[in-house]
């Protein structure tokens, strides 16, 4: 559906995309993940041909992107990072305006607008103007505007930032429904747990580059950490992080609030080595959990940075 090959985009002396390549197949949800300023929105704007790029190629539906290709544009939906809704128009009018950019037939449009309202759960707010809506409800309206014309590819740029739990669930369930109906979704977020739950595969971006792309399984195989053990100790002291690092095969130890996350490289006896260390040091713990590396662990190992979760 989307092939982006070695795209370079510069803003004067900032390289926002540095030979960025990316592939998206049909009917999948792809998470575009990376820290502030890594180039996610720029990549989306290049794919939408809202921005000119300096080098490389982008094909969508097998054709090079072109701002004048209206046939292709009709098949694409965008929910931008910044709200793009009209303050003077109510919920129905806002959605109808965006849908009208792609669909001329008024009767068909009315049906699509009603479906979009139903999809994001805004039935009670049909006549409300944006200033009467909460932040989360405005986000849902922004989404309805992007999806009403039933695109084959949907770009969602940080749709759940500053959104309450109920609206967040609505948005995530809506994205899953779009996929079930056959849409390819490109989803950018800072929330790695959310991405892990929602997306079929991931692109890890850093400094305008594609650091890794694949399913969680592919990404887990691409790093040296193979096991992540979290322990909650009952008594601890400030030397514990460094002492835990002395256990054989430990890659990294991260302390978060009251828990220690210990990342091990491939080895069969990690848990027993840890338990032996605990016994030998007369430590006590209330919780211990062994898992495969999470997206957060993968992100940290690949980029050397933690992404806010
Ligand atoms: N119009 C612009 N003019 C100059 N520099 C820009 C412009 N837009 C983006 N940049 C720079 O390009 C880089 C990539 O920005 P971009 O907005 O694509 O990042 P992002 O990954 O979407 O970040 P965020 O998570 O904050 O939304 C950043 O260094 C940013 O400062
Ligand atoms: Mg952005």
Q: What's the structural blueprint in terms of helices and strands?
A:
Elements: E1 2-11, E2 14-24, E3 29-33, H1 40-47, E4 55-60, E5 63-64, H2 70-73, E6 76-79, H3 91-100, H4 106-120, H5 135-147, E7 153-157, H6 165-180, E8 184-189, H7 192-198, E9 201-206, E10 209-214, H8 216-222, E11 225-233, H9 240-244, E12 250-256, E13 259-265, H10 270-280, E14 285-291, H11 295-303
Helix pairs in contact: 3-4, 3-5, 4-5, 5-6
The structure holds adenosine-5'-triphosphate and magnesium ion (MG).
Task: Describe the overall structure.
- The chain is α/β, with parallel strands linked by helices and 309 residues long.
- The chain folds into two domains: 2-217, 3-Layer(aba) Sandwich (Rossmann fold), CATH 3.40.50; 224-292, Alpha-Beta Plaits (2-Layer Sandwich).
- Helix content is 34%, strand content 29%.
- The strands form three sheets. A six-stranded mixed β-sheet has the order 6-7-8-3-9-10, sandwiched between helices. It has a four-stranded antiparallel β-sheet with strand order 2-1-4-5, covered by helices on one side. It has a four-stranded antiparallel β-sheet with strand order 12-13-11-14.
- A hairpin with a 2-residue loop joins strand 1 and strand 2 (14-24).
- Helix 3 packs parallel to helix 5.
- The chain starts with a strand and ends in a 6-residue tail after the last helix.
- Bound molecules: adenosine-5'-triphosphate and magnesium ion.
- Residues 40-41, 81, 157 line the site of magnesium ion.
């Amino acid at each position: 559906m989307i092939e982006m090959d070695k795209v370079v985009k510069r803003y004067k002396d900032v390289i926002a995309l540095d030979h960025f390549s990316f592939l998206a197949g049909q009917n999948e949800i792809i998470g575009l993940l990376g820290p502030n300023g890594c180039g996610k929105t720029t990549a989306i704007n290049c794919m939408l041909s809202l921005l000119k790029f300096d080098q490389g190629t982008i094909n969508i539906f097998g054709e090079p992107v072109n701002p004048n290709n209206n046939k292709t544009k009709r098949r694409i939906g965008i929910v931008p990072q910044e709200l793009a809704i009209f303050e003077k128009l109510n919920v129905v009018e806002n959605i109808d305006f965006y849908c009208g950019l792609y669909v001329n037939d008024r009767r068909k449009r009315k049906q699509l607008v009603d479906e979009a309202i139903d999809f994001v759960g805004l039935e009670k707010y049909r006549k409300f103007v944006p200033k009467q809506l909460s932040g989360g409800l405005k986000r849902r309206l922004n989404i309805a505007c992007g999806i009403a014309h039933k695109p084959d590819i949907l770009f969602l740029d940080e749709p759940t930032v500053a959104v309450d739990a109920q609206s967040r669930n609505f948005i995530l369930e809506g994205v899953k429904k779009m996929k079930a109906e056959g849409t390819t979704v490109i989803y950018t977020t800072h929330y790695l747990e959310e991405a892990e739950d929602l997306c079929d595969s991931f692109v890890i971006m850093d400094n305008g580059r594609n650091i890794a792309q694949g399913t969680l399984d592919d990404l887990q195989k691409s790093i040296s950490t193979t096991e992540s053990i979290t322990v909650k100790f009952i008594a601890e002291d400030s030397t514990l992080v460094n002492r835990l690092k002395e256990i054989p095969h430990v890659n990294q130890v991260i302390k978060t609030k009251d828990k220690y996350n210990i990342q091990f490289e491939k080895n069969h006896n990690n848990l027993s080595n840890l338990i032996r260390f605990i016994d030998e040091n007369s430590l006590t713990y209330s919780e211990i959990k062994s898992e495969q590396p999470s997206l957060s662990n993968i992100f940290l190992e690949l980029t050397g940075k933690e992404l806010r979760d």
